[in-house]
Amino acid sequence: MKRRIVVGLMSGTSMDGIDAAVLEIRGAGARSRARQLAFIAVPYPRGVRDRLFRICAAMVSSPIKPAEISSLNFQLGDLFAQAAIRAARRAGLALDEVDLIGSHGQTIYHDPQGSPPSTLQLGEPAIIAERTGVTTVADFRPADIAAGGEGAPLVPYVHYLLFRDKKKSRAIHNLGGISNLTYLPAGARLRDVVAFDTGPGNMVIDGLCRWLTRGKKGSDRGGAMARRGTVQEGLLRDLLRHPFFAKRPPKSTGREEFGAAFVSSLIHKARRRGMRPLDLLTTATALTARSIGRAYRDFILRRLGKVDEIYFTGGGRKNHTLLELLRRELPCARVGVVEELGWDGDALEAQAFALLAHEAVEGSAGNLPRATGARHEVILGKIVPGRNYRGVRLRRSKFKVQGSRFGVRR
Fold first, then answer.
1. CA distance linking residue 156 with residue 182, whole number of Å
2. Are residues 334 and 276 in the same domain?
3. Dihedral (CA of 283, 287, 290, 294) sign
4. 251-305 pLDDT per residue, tens
5. Disulfide-capable partner of 401 in 220, 307, 327, 409 (CB 3.0 to 4.6 Å)?
6. What are the backbone angles phi and psi of residue 21, rounded to the nearest 5°?
7. Residue 109 and residue 271: Cα distance in Å, rounded?
8. Could you list the residue range(s) of the whole structural domain that residue 69 is in?
């Protein structure tokens, strides 16, 4: 099994910067084996992050100039390219030793229920390929949406490759800006995997932290602030009536439902109730935990069976107050973090897009229709040739064809 060196690039809904992971990948499909060579997290320059927040808010509430989006798309492409170059150096590699880059980009709009359904990620891949010379796979979500899916979540295929177990039913749960779970029943085959967004992860908590501290803090580090407040059960019950929580999977969400407008509405409700700001933050932290517990009860335990283990990944796993609440909400399973399985919870999503890029050039489908709601399997991502394009071998596979009607294989 010839190895391929792939850099995965990711920036999530928290929009705090670019994660870059360098993987050595051998094999393809269900027989893929991956080893991390390096990982770095590169914060966005403050001005860039401010522009991103402003554009995301404007996408749903006011007109925005196309020039602003176009300019930011190319600027982010350059920042993603720089992150890939730095990650390769951290791994002790020259750029001509890197075979491929997989870039998720930065989502600024995601509306799979729109008319027509749509999604938009910035971080121009042509800039990445030009600056690095490395063939780049990017823009992973549109192919799934074109096939009738939600375009999210996309990492469950990678969770299956890395974390399935023959004897234990396991969930891998990402606590990013948005919270999403992947359920892997014992002995799972790909068609058995269930995955969906559960609602806000850190997004509402982070928005309230910025409001509480007048922009001085972007997150509640360790959950220290939330630990000092009290959950207001009346407001929490009201928030849990949001229709997204009751919606059956497949489903996905983002800033359009739980971003700046939701946070502003929450602050308004708290003021009308005369709540202390810290109590509002604590209640928002409880909202994340309570909605996650409800998702497991309603859509996993009652429909699919037991969960032996739940491993959390993403920035929210470092919020000790949130994790404590989650352990109370999830007595059905042993709760831990993915480091216990030998993987870096900060790097996992960047690693996922390295693996999805690898699967794309292998001609393998990267979506799970049961998770996204797509009509069929599709190859994810658009391939932008770099100077090494002729050297990117599209090898024939020994793996079983499952979607032969579409020229797609597992």
1. 6
2. yes
3. positive
4. 999 988 999 899 999 999 999 999 999 999 999 999 999 999 999 999 999 999 8
5. 409
6. -120, 135
7. 29
8. 3-154+347-406
Q: Indicate the SS3 state at residue 13.
A: coil
Backbone dihedral region for residue 38 (phi beyond 0: left; psi -120 to 50: alpha; all else: beta) = beta
Q: Please name every residue paired with 336 in a beta bridge, in sequence order, or none if there are none.
A: 311
Q: How far is the C-alpha of 293 from the C-alpha of 322, rounded, in Å?
A: 12
CA distance 253 to 232: 25
Distance CA 199, CA 246 (A): 10
Half-sphere exposure of 153 (CA within 13 A, CB side): 30
What are the DSSP calls for 161-174, one per residue? HHH--SS--EEEEE
Q: Which residue has the tokens 């606590």?
A: 175
The tens digit of pLDDT for each residue in 221-241 reads 999 999 999 999 999 999 999
Other residues' Cβ atoms within 10 Å of the Cβ of residue 219: 18
Residues 256, 147, single domain; the answer is no
Residue 103 · residue 138 · CB < 8 Å: yes
Indicate if 135 and 178 belong to the same structural domain.
Answer: no
Task: Give Cα 233 distance to the centre of its chain.
Answer: 29
